[in-house]
Amino acid sequence: MSEEWATTESPRPWSSTGSEPAPEAEGPAPHAESGDERATTFDSDGPETNAPSAPETINTNYGDAENVIQAGAVFGGIHTRTQHINYLSAEWYEAGRLDSRYVEYVRTTFVPGDRERYERFTNDLAESGFGVITGAVGTGRRSAAITALAGLGLPVRPVQVEEDEGWSPHALVCDKGHGYLIDLSDIQRLGAALEQSLHSFAVRARERGSAVVVCLRTGQRTDGAIIGASALPVTAPSGMAVLRSHLSVIHPTVDADILEAHPGMVDALTTASPASAARMAELAYEAHRTGPPENTDAWISMTLAAYQNWHTQLAAWFAEHRSDGSIYERVLLAAVAMLEGAPADEVLIAASRLAERLGVEPADPTGISGLGLASSLDAVKAKVASDRTVMFTDLAYAPAVLDYLWQEHPLVREPLLDWSIRVPKSLALAWPHLVSRHWLELAERHDDFTWVTRLFLAWARSPLTARVAIAMAGHVAALPREGRDMRSALYSIAKAPRDREIALAAVRVCGAYGAVAPATALTRLKWLADQDDDLVRDEVRRTLAALADSMEIHPQMLGELVEWADDPKQRGRSAVAVEAISYLLTVRGPDGTPAILADVLSTEHRTGLPLAAHAWRRLLVPEHTRLAEAAAAAWLDPLAAGRADFGTVAGVLTAAVQGSLPRVVLASKLVDYWRSGATVDGAVNTEVILRLYEHIHAADPLAADETNGGHAGAEPRR
């Protein structure tokens, strides 16, 4: 048994968390199987990464920028000369729910396509607590759902749907006072059983003061409705209305009338999706903020060129650089796009390595015969900044270059990923952050996250890149739809890891996103706990303890852990679960009482009490006495001090021992043991403890005889 779990003196008995990897474990060095260092240097040969093969060309963004709908300014994934904010980041999640700042931004900037219809929907949702939003992908369904749920004063909790893992609303934990957002857009068949399950979940939610909104694609259901649900068919708002809404928040001093009067802006926004219009607002702001041009036409022209991904300009540039002598400049352009912000001389060296990968003749084979740094960068519309880093001279040029390469030169993706994986020691700190950011953005813009998964699998084993790889994978895995490929890879690792390093990385990724989506993370941790490796199991323990700090997911955690503990095969998950249950039962809320007690009260004893009792039942066996002692102290201290509800504590413990004489005896002795060393501040309420004895003994008529009349004759364990 790990002593880490037995302590109750601090909320987390270890320093490392699930999202911050612990110091490198002893054991085989990274890549021990293949004997190389793929993620360490450019010069080494790469190992097998167990990664997916190269995917087919996908050039379409299916509109999932609506996941942050129109939230481009604050949470919007726009790369500029001065900043980058990644809207794929899990930072806009709190424990199990969307970050309140992000929700407020969505509410503030949301523009319904049909305001009257939307207001009717929100009124109906307030009455029924159940709504269905249908529409084409990219029209603002998710934003409409977030805004509607937030309008009810509920924190918004997105639900991950894993159809291939037997997902069902029946298995969802329904907490009090939450807004559940369930996107079923990718479900192939919306059958009667699933609809009934959704209806039942919505009924449970309504009883608990919660609400449910389901997002569907147009045509996914012929009548667009589910029994008992209010319906909202969504149409996209005008692009100009979205532009105005965002500018009013991010740059209220800009005169939106000037933009609305410009013919080019009108043409661009006539058919723009809400997310694209939000991106236009961000670019207009950046073009104005980084140096407002005196000529309004020049400002708008730069905004439009950046919005159109500089496609016309890039097409012309690539056409001019087709000869053998200028192909290297294409390579340099790609390297600068990936490494903008890195030291300029290192970028030039990295470009030569990319050229070598692609079989392109270097521009400076002797080291002194080329154009030189400044002239080479000028040829690709880049320059050396005052801090000696490289930067493009045009707004949002790096993502435009990478998009052009992705669309027009798909064969370069594989060597570009291979080059990205191999980190030069001279850029060991900057490279992983810069490169992972661009692969994340490419994945979102082109709706293809397999490349990010492959990057994670290649980087996860190396000390140089593991931290960034784990953070990147955690961010992606948290996303309901975009994270499916990453979660699938984590599931495969959990079931059959190739080595210790990849197993440890998978555990840490689960810790990074587990507070957001506990169900899928715990499923993977369960299989990882079964691995016959003490270091991996210890990492699972640390991760579970870190997740226990997120009190909102306690009911779901406890339900999963009880299931682990009941494993009929008694695999590794069982022992880990019992320790974790003990720890979870000791976690205290802000008032000093165990958080699980508050959960039981919040569910009005209907579901919380049986679950807590089942958890206690797992501890009330002789081999887990010490674990039970820690939990007993956490529950009895506040009870004796008058801070815990007697009916709840007695109800849980009575249900836990019901019909089992050995458990009644053990529970009685636990109370005696606690009394022998009680250190409760103030007077101990002896009468309350005596009443608790009576309730415990009443659970089995033979208990009183066995314990010589109860507490008086019981001998505490020393």
Could you explain the architecture of this structure?
The chain contains 33 helices and nine strands. It is mainly alpha-helical. Among the domains are: 141 residues, 3-Layer(aba) Sandwich (Rossmann fold); 68 residues, no CATH class; 109 residues; 127 residues, no CATH class. The strands form three sheets. A five-stranded parallel beta sheet has the order 4-5-6-3-7, sandwiched between helices. A two-stranded antiparallel sheet has the order 1-2. It is globular, with a radius of gyration of 29 Å.
- Kindly report how far apart the N and C termini lie: 19 Å
CATH fold title of the domain at 96-236? Rossmann fold
The shape is globular
C-alpha-based Rg, rounded: 29 Å
- How much β-strand is present in the residues? 5-15%
How would you sum up the major sheet?
A: 5 strands, parallel
Structural class determined from secondary elements:
mainly alpha
Helix content: 40-55%
* Widest β-sheet, arrangement of strands: 4-5-6-3-7
The CATH architecture designation of the domain at 96-236 is 3-Layer(aba) Sandwich
Biased composition (Low complexity): 20-32
Region (Disordered): 1-60
Biased composition (Polar residues): 1-19, 50-60
